[in-house]
Amino acid sequence: MTYTSVKTLTFDNFLAQYQDCPRYELADGELIDMEPTGLHETVSGKLATKIGIALTAVELPWFIPRTCIVRPFAEAATARRPDVVVLDETVLSSEPFWEQEPVITLGRSIKLVVEVVSTNWENDYARKVEEYALLGIPEYWIVDYRGLGGVAFIGKPKQPTFTVCQLVSEEYVQQQYRLGQPIKSPLLPRLQLRLDDILPR
């Protein structure tokens, strides 16, 4: 991750200049170049496929948009681009931006958000946990397929870790899974998934 901004951007400035550039996020007015790698995209793509299959099986009115910006707070110049996001189509008519652009501002529109960890692991394990919980997103997955997170987050020895955060009383309760372990999602109980299934070959 590289911080490239020399000036502060507003949310509207960010949309006007970078809406069609999926490699950029905005955090408190600072432009962040996410620098996605091919391996990162492999993991997020495989995961989106697994989630999509599970959603189709249960016939819920949820879907995975191809591109989406999450604006966690109206008063802050912050725009997140989750690696995978599951939206509830029945709620989108309440979204103020959705008909014109793929921007989500209401937590109730989002069922699940997924971040695949890269060099900016601090954001995924700390800041985004707070932002997504405050927004009221029921489930947040942190997919640390290379074991990059700090020891305080993934323990010793550092190893690939999949963290399921479930919102309980406005805070996330976290459950971690390692290689070989079946992952349990309260949101998608019929999902068949292990971290091994989504690793790059």
UniProtKB/TrEMBL annotation:
All residue ranges annotated as the Putative restriction endonuclease domain in the record: 14-195
Gene3D superfamilies: tt1808, chain A (3.90.1570.10)
Top-level division of the source organism's lineage: Bacteria
InterPro entries given in the database record: Nuclease_put_TT1808, Restrct_endonuc-II-like, Uma2
Name of the protein: Putative restriction endonuclease domain-containing protein
Species this protein is from: Merismopedia glauca CCAP 1448/3
